[in-house]
Structure formats: structure tokens, C-alpha cells
């Protein structure tokens, strides 16, 4: 067992086991587990996404197409059986994050522009229209209440959260150029925990950016992340294997096949 410290979060290692499977099954039966789909959008997942002016609208994660079959499998086995929380990048041209993702190996100076095809989910991860959309702009509507989130967990609904930073609990202020706390993101995770959520089944892209930060945010609020390791893909690391990313040292990992077996038993 080893311990790391990343962003003031302590991590210890332990592999997925039979006890984990039993506890996950219990959480699913009690509507306290949910899918956490990180940024599986056209701009990240599929090459050749372009804007009307012919420039590319995306930040293609190299090899991301390789996990699309696993993503489609998750949709097949879990739609209607688990609630789904999903994030999408929804950028504006002056967002601070954009200045860090230019040049090689990145294929676009602008990615996931709000309202474009690049920021939309790929068909393989669309379960339906979100029951709640939390827009990235601070002045937009507030986050759903604890009771509303509980209703969505119970009804296997969908919540989509727009973001303009790697982490859903951070917000890039385009006017000042500073990265600040995302009050809506923080309030959402707080309400999610208070609504009874205990386990998040995390997948998407990119392992070394937004997936990593999703794990950190979940841990911050006491929600246990389980990463579906055949449904993630990195930008810079040599392998999607979770052990190659130290931040995941203590995070339980499972496969889509293991999730399917558990869902078959509890449904």
C-alpha cells in the first residue's frame, strides 16, 4: 500500500475485489451509485470536427476512438439502470484554459466552443436529453436542489454540467484571466453528497487531465470514485492503464465487463 498527496488529497492503493463488488451492488440497488461521464464530446473523441469557417473545433485525444466500443457498451448495459452525471467543455474564446492547449500535440487553438458540434456528446454516450443542464456562466441558473438530485438518482436521470476548466469545481474568468472557484460546481457536488450519492463510476477523457480532476473533486466531497479503466484515454501518458497515473494510486478500477455482471445481478 502506498500513499501520495495530490492537490491536498491523500491516496492509498487497493485493487477491486469481491467486497467492492458487493458494496457497489448495494449502492446501485439503493440508487446511491451513478455514472460520471467526463467530456466524451466530438471535439475530444473524434477527428475532423470542424467549425463553419473550416477550422477545427476540437482538442483530439490521441487514440480516443479506441475506447468508443467500451463507451457504447456502458450505454448498452447501464442506460435506465443508473443515473448519469456528465460534463462537457463549453468554452468561449477568452477562457484562460485555452492558452495552455495550443501547438503540438494539440490540433486546435480553440476547442469545445460552447454551442458547437465539438462540445456535444458523441452518439455513443448520449443517453437522452439532460433532465438538468448546469450552464458554465455564473449568472445562469443555480444548481439543482438536494431533493431534485435525489429524484434524478432515483429515476436514473441525467445531469449535465458545462465547464471551462479541467475541473468541474474551477471556473476560468475570461475577463480577469484568473482561475477561480466554481461556486456552482462546488455547490453541486455538495448537494450531490447530501442527496445520498456514495459511488461514482468514472470514465471518459482525458485520463491525465479532466478524469484525474474529476476523481479529486469526488474525493473532496466524500464520494467514492471507481474508474472504468477500459473506458478512459490519456493525452500524454504511454498507456491508459491506471497504474501509470500516480493520482489514481488508491482509486478502485473495474472494467465494463465487470460492471455488466454487477448490473445483471442487481437488476
What would a concise description of this structure say?
The protein has 267 residues and is of the alpha/beta class. It has seven helices and eleven strands.
Low-confidence stretches: 1-13, 238-242
What pattern of helices and strands is seen along the backbone?
Answer: EEHEHHEEHEEEHEHEEH
Proportion of residues in β-strands: 15-25%
The number of helices is 7
Class inferred from helices and paired strands: alpha/beta
What is the helical fraction, as a range of percent? Answer: 25-40%
End-to-end separation: 34 Å
CATH topology name: Rossmann fold
Q: Nearest-angstrom radius of gyration?
A: 17 Å
The overall pLDDT average reads: 83
CATH superfamily: Isochorismatase-like
Tertiary shape? globular
Under CATH at level 1, the class stands as: Alpha Beta
What's the number of domains?
A: 1
Largest sheet entry: 7 strands, parallel
Strand order of the largest sheet: 5-6-4-3-9-10-11
Topology:
Layout: E1 3-6, E2 9-12, H1 18-29, E3 33-38, H2 42-45, H3 68-78, E4 83-89, E5 132-134, H4 146-155, E6 158-163, E7 170-172, E8 179-181, H5 183-194, E9 199-205, H6 207-220, E10 224-233, E11 252-254, H7 256-266
Parallel strand pairs: 3-4, 3-9, 4-6, 5-6, 9-10, 10-11
Antiparallel strand pairs: 1-2, 7-8
Keywords:
globular; 267 residues; Rossmann fold; two-stranded antiparallel sheet; disordered N terminus; alpha/beta; 7-stranded parallel sheet; 28% helix; single chain
Give an overview of the whole structure:
There is one protein chain. By secondary structure, the protein is an alpha/beta fold. It has a single domain (23-266), classed as Isochorismatase-like (Rossmann fold). Helix content is 28%, strand content 21%. The chain contains seven helices and eleven strands. It has helices at 18-29, 42-45, 68-78, 146-155, 183-194, 207-220, 256-266; strands at residues 3-6, 9-12, 33-38, 83-89, 132-134, 158-163, 170-172, 179-181, 199-205, 224-233, 252-254. The strands form three sheets. The protein has a seven-stranded parallel sheet with strand order 5-6-4-3-9-10-11, sandwiched between helices. A two-stranded antiparallel sheet has the order 1-2. A two-stranded antiparallel sheet has the order 7-8. Strand 9 (199-205), helix 6 and strand 10 form a beta-alpha-beta unit. Helix 1 (18-29) crosses helix 7 and helix 3 packs parallel to helix 7. The model is unreliable at 1-13 and 238-242 (pLDDT under 50).
